[in-house]
Design brief:
By secondary structure, the chain is of the alpha+beta class. The chain folds into 2 domains: 1-38; 41-246, Neuraminidase. Helices cover 24% and strands 39% of the residues. The strands form 4 sheets. It has a 5-stranded mixed β-sheet with strand order 1-13-12-11-10, with no helix packed on it. A 4-stranded antiparallel β-sheet has the order 2-16-15-14, with helices on one face. It has a 4-stranded antiparallel β-sheet with strand order 6-7-8-9, with no helix packed on it. The longest helix is centred in the N-terminal third of the chain and has 37 residues, at 2-38. The N and C termini lie far apart (67 Å).
Length: 257
């Protein structure tokens, strides 16, 4: 009788333990399925850009080389925007493109990330934490440019279709880019701005406008705003990003902000 009395609680405990493990397995499988379902979800946080000033953006090279000293804040921002766009093609010793091959050099030894067999990758850029790299290539099938974001640790890749210009946030692993959606063969008729957050694997559409054609987006130096060019007028647009930042929508910081 004593053995039976001892065995009964042990059997009950074993049953509870097995049930708990089965529940954990079920939850894990459900979570994995949910993650896969959410992988390509586009969240909309739509904003209407504003013109920064009446000043027309001048992209001429001679203006960049002989830039006058900015007189006010708006001119400083315009100068920052132009300089940043111009520096997008400068060679970075940590990540660069050479002979149609993208390399990463974080420890003194260059490592090939993508080459011409991958459709001529170009313009590589490292995220703030240096955990992700973004580069562009031309898709021969769709005859459109795409941006590939690769996790340097896991080697996982995400393709941002129809993406053109792109820039990482200065402090967070968040990529801002534009998507050209319509043209007449000569000029862009519609282009919008998106954010890609690789940690969450989500895409946030920032703009959806007919009055603007937003191109070449970049983050401000402090990361609080997104600047872009209005292809219709050549004027500078801006979107304040603080609401999204304060909502903890940005994650993956490389340093305190």
């Amino acid at each position: 009788m004593k053995k039976v009395a001892i065995l009964i609680p042990l059997v009950i405990l074993l049953g509870v333990f097995i049930g708990f493990q089965l529940e954990r397995t079920s939850l894990r499988q459900t979570s994995t399925k949910t993650d896969k379902m959410l992988k390509r979800v586009y969240k909309k946080e739509l904003h209407t850009p504003k013109y920064l000033s009446e000043q027309i953006i001048n992209h001429k090279k001679e203006y960049q080389e002989n830039r006058p000293t900015p007189k006010d804040k708006n001119e400083e921002i315009v100068a920052y925007y132009e300089d940043t766009i111009a520096k997008e093609f400068d060679k970075n010793p940590e990540v660069y493109e050479e002979d149609s091959t993208v390399y990463v050099n974080l420890n003194g030894t260059p490592k090939e990330i993508a080459s011409q067999k991958d459709s001529t990758p170009m313009i590589p850029k490292l995220s703030a934490s240096k955990r992700f790299i973004a580069y562009q290539w031309y898709d021969e099938k769709s005859q459109r440019y795409e941006v590939v974001v690769e996790n340097l640790q896991t080697k996982e890749k995400e393709t941002l279709e129809n993406a053109s210009s792109y820039t990482w946030h200065p402090y967070y692993d968040v990529l801002v880019y534009d998507v050209s959606q319509d043209d007449d063969g000569h000029n862009l008729l519609k282009s919008e701005i998106y954010l890609f957050q690789p940690y969450k694997n989500t895409i946030v559409q920032l703009t959806d406008t007919n009055e603007f054609v937003e191109t070449h987006p970049i983050f401000s130096e402090d990361g609080n705003d997104v600047y872009s060019d209005d292809a219709k007028t050549g004027r500078l647009l801006y979107i304040n990003m603080l609401p999204l930042i304060y909502q903890n929508s940005f994650i993956g910081a490389s340093k305190d902000v």
